[in-house]
Amino acid sequence: MNRALWSQRITAFSCPPFPCPTCKKGVFSLIPNSLVYLETAASKLARIKEENWSIYETDFRFSARLKCGRATCGDEAVIVGVGGVEEQPSQEGWEPSEYFVPKFCLPMPDIISIPDKCPPPISEELRASFALFWADPAAAANRTRTTLEHIMNHFGIARSRLTVKRKRHRLVSVTPSASIRIG
Q: What φ, ψ does residue 138 adopt, rounded to 5°?
């Protein structure tokens, strides 16, 4: 897993090389001129009302289309998210530049590779966690926890056993932790 890949931003001209979930061999690239963005109503209002408003306080929403670069695949995806303006280096020094942060992609690329022989309940739950990765990291972590439960079930790992006094004793506890951070 390339951790840096999943935190990169999109520009009007390029996107990170997200792996194609269809062929699993190609990577997505931005379809030229497909990125569309609009300034939010709150951002427009702030620009008008705030005396010390700065262009760097601008907020956007965007959508774009991606296409797998592998000739035998060519599958497409739609990606949406939020954006803003930040300073970027240029030949004249620094200048404002728009950036975009993904919040959802359909189909969502696989964040980690899933073996072809992976049982469907496990791969489906894991892919469900991927779909939530940008939009709701806590929900993605919970789906990952559920994936671990499916793995335990697949391998027949007992969750509890009876003690000598015939009381049930929990052996394994898979619980989300506040310290777990996805992304």
A: -65, -40
Predicted TM-score of the model (pTM): 0.78
Q: Are 60 and 38 in contact (CB under 8 A)?
A: yes
Tens digits of residue pLDDT in 30-60? 999 999 999 999 999 999 998 889 999 999 9
Strand 36-39 relative to strand 28-30, pairing: unpaired
- Give me the half-sphere count of Cα atoms (radius 13 Å) on the Cβ side of residue 135: 12
In the structure encoding, which two tokens stand for residue 3, read together? 């951790």
For 88, other C-beta atoms within 10 Å of its C-beta total 12
